[in-house]
């Protein structure tokens, strides 16, 4: 699975695929911002695979500028034209995807964007639980909420509902920055402290 292929991601994806003799099966998008989707069309096209995105962010694939707070017609991206991949599948909250032998649970996590989601996998052998958070949760920080479709209140609620109930050993792989764990963020991240009163009881993966 390829998650959030951003700008200039094609060469890196191809290098990893060749080096490890992999066969991509899908592109998963945590949200629709360009730094996470810029290469989705060529990556999907090169491998004949679908892109998975929440319907709340699907429009960003073909019309990204207004969701970045940029007025229509502003020549920020030159003559680039944006379009959806040929095969787009929409995600829903709580759906479990069976891809590449893994069960991947999707949690709708609005706040950074309306259609932000996380992807979580159970532990396998010596591999711990993993949560791909996109721009919801970073090591020591969270994603911004001041762009169109963002909401600080929704982001805190998503942290409380999606992140805080997970086991401390859950590995967090975010859209930016270093790897962390839920336990580390629970203990040190001020935004999770603020979200804690909204949380529900812990759950397993």
Automatic annotation (TrEMBL):
Q: Does the keyword Flavoprotein apply?
A: no
Q: Give the matching SUPFAM superfamilies.
A: Metallo-hydrolase/oxidoreductase
Query: Which Gene3D superfamilies does the entry link to?
Result: Ribonuclease Z/Hydroxyacylglutathione hydrolase-like (3.60.15.10)
Superkingdom: Bacteria
Q: SMART domains, per this entry?
A: Lactamase_B (SM00849)
The record's keywords, sorted A to Z, are: Hydrolase, Metal-binding, Zinc
InterPro entries xref list: MBL_Glyoxalase_II, Metallo-B-lactamas, RibonucZ/Hydroxyglut_hydro
Q: Which cofactor does it need?
A: Zn(2+)
All residue ranges annotated as the Metallo-beta-lactamase domain in the record: 1-176
Q: Which PANTHER family match?
A: HYDROXYACYLGLUTATHIONE HYDROLASE GLOC
Q: What is this protein called?
A: MBL fold metallo-hydrolase
The record lists the organism as Catenulispora yoronensis
- Could you read off the lineage of the organism from its UniProt record? Bacteria, Bacillati, Actinomycetota, Actinomycetes, Catenulisporales
């Amino acid at each position: 699975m390829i998650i959030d292929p951003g700008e200039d991601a094609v060469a890196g994806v191809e290098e990893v695929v060749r080096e490890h003799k992999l066969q991509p099966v899908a592109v998963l998008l945590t949200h629709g911002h360009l730094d996470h989707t810029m290469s989705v069309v060529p990556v999907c096209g090169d491998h004949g695979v679908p892109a998975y995105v929440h319907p709340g962010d699907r429009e960003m694939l073909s019309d990204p500028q207004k969701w970045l707070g940029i007025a229509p017609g502003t020549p920020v991206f030159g003559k680039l034209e944006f379009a959806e991949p040929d095969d787009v599948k929409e995600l829903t909250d709580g759906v479990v995807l069976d891809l590449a032998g893994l069960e991947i649970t999707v949690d709708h996590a609005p706040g950074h964007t309306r259609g932000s989601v996380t992807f979580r996998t159970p532990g396998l052998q010596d591999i711990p639980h993993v949560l791909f958070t996109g721009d919801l949760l970073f090591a020591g920080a969270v994603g911004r909420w001041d762009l169109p479709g963002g909401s600080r209140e929704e982001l805190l609620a998503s942290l409380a509902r999606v992140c805080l109930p997970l086991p401390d050993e859950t590995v967090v792989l975010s859209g930016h920055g270093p790897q962390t764990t839920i336990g580390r963020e629970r203990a040190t991240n001020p935004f999770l402290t603020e979200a804690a009163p909204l949380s529900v009881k812990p759950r397993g993966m």
